Amino acid sequence: MTYCVGLMLKKGLVFMSDTRTNSGVDNISTFQKMFTWEVPGERSITLMTAGNLATTQSVISLLEERSKQPSERNPGILQMPSMFQVATLVGNLLKEVISTHAEAGQRADSAFNATIVLGGQIGDGAPCMFLIYPEGNFIEASFDTPYFQIGETKYGRPILVRAYDPEMSFEDAVKLLLVSFDSTIKANLSVSLPLDVHIYKAGSLKNGRIFRIATDDPYYESVSTGWGIALREAFGQLPDFVLPET
Amino acid sequence: MTYCVGLMLKKGLVFMSDTRTNSGVDNISTFQKMFTWEVPGERSITLMTAGNLATTQSVISLLEERSKQPSERNPGILQMPSMFQVATLVGNLLKEVISTHAEAGQRADSAFNATIVLGGQIGDGAPCMFLIYPEGNFIEASFDTPYFQIGETKYGRPILVRAYDPEMSFEDAVKLLLVSFDSTIKANLSVSLPLDVHIYKAGSLKNGRIFRIATDDPYYESVSTGWGIALREAFGQLPDFVLPET
User: Which InterPro entries match (chains A, B) (predicted)?
Assistant: First the structure.
């Protein structure tokens, strides 16, 4: 499937995405699902995709083309004055690409659908994050709902809910996301390493640390093994259950 | 939705089911989803249901009727000589009830579908557990796959995978299931307390301890709160992440 998470912190934004793509269980590949753009001193934009790969690759390619050859009629994401307008542009593009192939009518279950997490900062605006639907509309994250997950979201959600803290450091946020990804990867074969990570520092207005966590990464292994042990210990420390009186 | 889990241990079987039923978010009710039958000294059978409530209630009612008025042509679940044959009977009944209402053809996405977890022990047979599909066929649990979940399964699965131990006591198994249910209840509004529990002791050939965990049960509260705290502490104890060198 896919698993991508965008996390909003007081210190900035953290993005993590897997790289497994599959067309049936007998056809798996590795494709990047995270894409970044920057105009240093002015903007940093990150986009992560889930869903039909042909759709998402078309959206990325069109965004790239139009940002390299902007015109008054077709400003690209490097020209839009706010993240809200970038989200609107990406949403319209996503809807357009899907409708090129999908049958007319309801878009909800189309095989060509894709969902996008878009985040970043432009100029004076605050860092922000959007979840863009195949229909082209979108919602924005706030500290009430400070993260968006796309793809196989359920296994990895409980730990995000419980351990997320808006004041947490970037390092702790990466650790949190790795635990969330580990639960997902263990449960769904179509989500897998390597993982792409982008740490965006609020106010920096340029791409931050971008790196890949490889399939045999020793830190990931230590988190994965350590978390299993930690869960069993935590379970053992819960108060004992006593059968009710008959 | 529903959440029910059947767990197989060396010591016996543990069943837990929620009781929330809903028809849209504005129409929620409480209905029992666990049903038990016994012939003391001979058999104990437990059945838990997920899916279309009208379908599952019909299946239960027909099982009840036929077990009270068995005939040579229509033996009931209290007459079948093995759990495998009980599973076959229940599977056929489920398929029959669904097809009474569903359109002809593919059954996979029918609005009338239901899934059943069936467990128990008859005579000399070992305790066993089955997952019965709307198509009427079924699979059997073994110590390779020693539990079945039906309904909203994803949130509650990681802790089962990590903390399950075939040698665990019944009390620990109930505690484990409550942690699994707590993650699910926190994440999906259509799963809720009260919870029904049945602890079947291997070789006893009669129903075991059957009880309900109420909405305000203090032990459940202590597990729910304690687990949140334990997860945050476990997370804090994982090795720190260090940003890779640029």
Answer: Ntn_hydrolases_N (IPR029055), Proteasome_sua/b (IPR001353), UCP009120_prtse (IPR016545)
Residues 129-188 of chain B with CB under 8 A from chain A are 154-155, 157-159, 161-163, 170-172, 174-176, 178-179, 183, 186-187
Please give the average per-residue pLDDT across A188-217, as a whole number. Answer: 95
Which residues is A39 bridged to in the sheet?
Answer: A43
A175 DSSP β-pair partners: none
Q: Give the per-residue pLDDT at A103.
A: 65
Decide if B235 and A176 are in contact by the 8 Å CB cutoff. Answer: yes
Per-residue model confidence (pLDDT) at position A189: 87
Q: Give the number of C-alpha atoms closer than 13 A to the C-alpha of residue B40, restricted to the C-beta side.
A: 1
What is the C-alpha R_g of chain A?
A: 19
Alpha helices in A124-169 (DSSP H): 157-163
Question: What CATH code is carried by the domain that includes residue A111?
Answer: 3.60.20.10
**What's the CA gap between A147 and A177, in Å, rounded?**
11
Please say whether the dihedral angle defined by the alpha carbons of residues B117, B121, B122 and B124, taken in this order, is positive or negative: positive
Which segments within A28-99 are labelled E, that is strand? 28-30, 34-39, 43-51
| Among candidate residues B158, B204, B27, B128, the one with its CA nearest the CA of residue A235 | B158
Is residue A242 in some structural domain?
no
Flag whether A17 is in a domain: yes
- Would you say B219 and A150 are in contact if contact means Cβ atoms under 8 Å apart? no
Predicted ipTM beyond 0.90: no
Which residues have a Cβ under 8 Å from the Cβ of B88 and sit 6 or more positions away? B138
pLDDT above 70: residue A15: yes
Closest CA to A160 of A143, A169, A173, A170: A173
Give the Cα separation of B77 and B64 in Å (integer). Answer: 9
Number of structural domains in chain A:
1
According to the model, what pLDDT value does residue B65 have? 87
Spell out which residues of chain B touch residue A155, defining contact as CB-CB under 8 Å. Answer: 154-155, 157-158
| Domain coverage including residue B88 | 3-236
* Average pLDDT per 10 consecutive residues for chain B, totaling 246 residues: 96 96 84 94 97 93 85 83 96 93 64 94 97 96 95 92 94 97 91 95 96 95 94 93 84
Q: Is residue A243 part of a domain?
A: no
In a domain, B244, yes or no: no
Q: What is the DSSP string of B41-87?
A: TTEEEEEEEEE-HHHHHHHHHHHHHHHHS--SSS--TTT-SSHHHHH
Residues 6+ apart with CB under 8 A from B107: B95, B98, B99, B113, B134, B135
Chain A residues whose beta carbon lies within 8 Å of the beta carbon of residue B219: 239, 241-242
Across the interface, whether the CB atoms of B175 and A242 are under 8 A apart is answered no
